[in-house]
Amino acid sequence: MSTSFSEGVVILSRRSSKRKTKSSSSLSSSSSDHHQAEMDMKKLHDHGHSHGHDKSKSNNNNNNKSKRRALVSFWELPEYMKDNEFIHNYYRANWSIKEALFSVFRWHNETLNVWTHLLGFVLFLGLSMANFIQIPQIADLISLITRSFPISSYANVSHNSEDFIPQGTTNLIDLKQINTSSEMDIAPPLTPVTRWPFFVFLAGSMFCLLSSSICHLFSCHSHNLNIKLLRIDYAGITIMIITSFFPPIYYIFQCDSHWQFVYLGGITAMGIFTIVTLLSPSLSTAKFRTFRALLFCSMGFFGIVPAVHGSFVNWDNPKRDVTLAYEAAMAVFYLSGTGFYVTRVPERWRPGWFDLAGHSHQIFHVLVVLGALAHYGATLVFLEWRDSVGCLNINV
Ligand SMILES: [Zn+2]
């Protein structure tokens, strides 16, 4: 770890020295060898190569081993890796799987892309586990409450046989009596609503974040793997968008399976169409960046329909504004993230300045995690609301 960070410092200091070289390029004072500097300038004009790598320019033809591990510039990249011309340096190209794996602890222009979504994955894994462990506790709590009903309402109707029936069996009998009771003045026990749509969303988010991290870490290996990983990455984004729809649609329209089916079916069909479309290799290229963003956005905009529908249906629900605020925050995070992804701001303003930190893709990654967290917050409110309300007094 310590060597990787010192390496990062070296890279950063090298970058600042290069900026100096660029600003005072006519003097070429940073180079000890004037002739070498002239050669570099010639290379710059010949290949549009604004600042080459110190190591590679001094000994280009020898030392194969160190060259394999050296970071290269945009202009030295194989064609398939030339995705963002505003990021000039610190690329890994054609690295072995092992080298790519261990580069997770090295500074290069994908380090923060990997870590932003890797930490996001760990965060969602933690949230999933916390909720998963909580379920039996909630179930216990609910059954504890429901047990109190039989005790209070049937306290005077004592059954002698109860003394001989195990506790669990008694509860089952009591619950059955309550459920089939025609006395509606006694509030029926509420069971917690099913959690699967919530876990579908968490699983979808984890899949997206993990596949994105893997894609950023290993796509430098080969053209073949690069194409495969990019497809998985796009499929991950699509799956995250689709699964995000499950909790709100399921819980809002829980008491009207018709709309549940229409909306969940609609978004799933859109998602499948998007995945199939993106499987075409030509659509994975830089040229179709905007097209991909539009596909993802159209799935997001699809959500406006059930959101407006759900808001009208639950117009008097006190939780309506809270969930809308959460979902609006999610929309702002996702849309601004997409904006960074498409425009490639800020690196387009200062090419070469944000190679290691602060470029658009890293900002996009952070906004995706924040958007997913906002949606997670909204989902908790939906769950709590549906747990407490059930399907009573709902006019959908
Ligand atoms: Zn990414």
UniProtKB/TrEMBL annotation:
<feature type="transmembrane region" description="Helical">
    <location>
        <begin position="259"/>
        <end position="279"/>
    </location>
</feature>
<dbReference type="GO" id="GO:0038023">
    <property type="term" value="F:signaling receptor activity"/>
</dbReference>
<feature type="transmembrane region" description="Helical">
    <location>
        <begin position="363"/>
        <end position="383"/>
    </location>
</feature>
<keyword id="KW-0862">Zinc</keyword>
<feature type="transmembrane region" description="Helical">
    <location>
        <begin position="112"/>
        <end position="133"/>
    </location>
</feature>
<dbReference type="Pfam" id="PF03006">
    <property type="entry name" value="HlyIII"/>
</dbReference>
<keyword id="KW-0479">Metal-binding</keyword>
<dbReference type="GO" id="GO:0009725">
    <property type="term" value="P:response to hormone"/>
</dbReference>
<feature type="transmembrane region" description="Helical">
    <location>
        <begin position="324"/>
        <end position="342"/>
    </location>
</feature>
<dbReference type="GO" id="GO:0046872">
    <property type="term" value="F:metal ion binding"/>
</dbReference>
<feature type="binding site">
    <location>
        <position position="365"/>
    </location>
    <ligand>
        <name>Zn(2+)</name>
    </ligand>
</feature>
<keyword id="KW-0472">Membrane</keyword>
<feature type="compositionally biased region" description="Basic and acidic residues">
    <location>
        <begin position="32"/>
        <end position="57"/>
    </location>
</feature>
<dbReference type="InterPro" id="IPR004254">
    <property type="entry name" value="AdipoR/HlyIII-related"/>
</dbReference>
<feature type="transmembrane region" description="Helical">
    <location>
        <begin position="232"/>
        <end position="253"/>
    </location>
</feature>
<dbReference type="GO" id="GO:0016020">
    <property type="term" value="C:membrane"/>
</dbReference>
<feature type="binding site">
    <location>
        <position position="361"/>
    </location>
    <ligand>
        <name>Zn(2+)</name>
    </ligand>
</feature>
<keyword id="KW-1133">Transmembrane helix</keyword>
<dbReference type="GO" id="GO:0009744">
    <property type="term" value="P:response to sucrose"/>
</dbReference>
<feature type="region of interest" description="Disordered">
    <location>
        <begin position="1"/>
        <end position="65"/>
    </location>
</feature>
<feature type="transmembrane region" description="Helical">
    <location>
        <begin position="291"/>
        <end position="312"/>
    </location>
</feature>
<keyword id="KW-0812">Transmembrane</keyword>
<feature type="transmembrane region" description="Helical">
    <location>
        <begin position="198"/>
        <end position="220"/>
    </location>
</feature>
<feature type="binding site">
    <location>
        <position position="216"/>
    </location>
    <ligand>
        <name>Zn(2+)</name>
    </ligand>
</feature>
<protein>
    <recommendedName>
        <fullName>Heptahelical transmembrane protein 1</fullName>
    </recommendedName>
</protein>
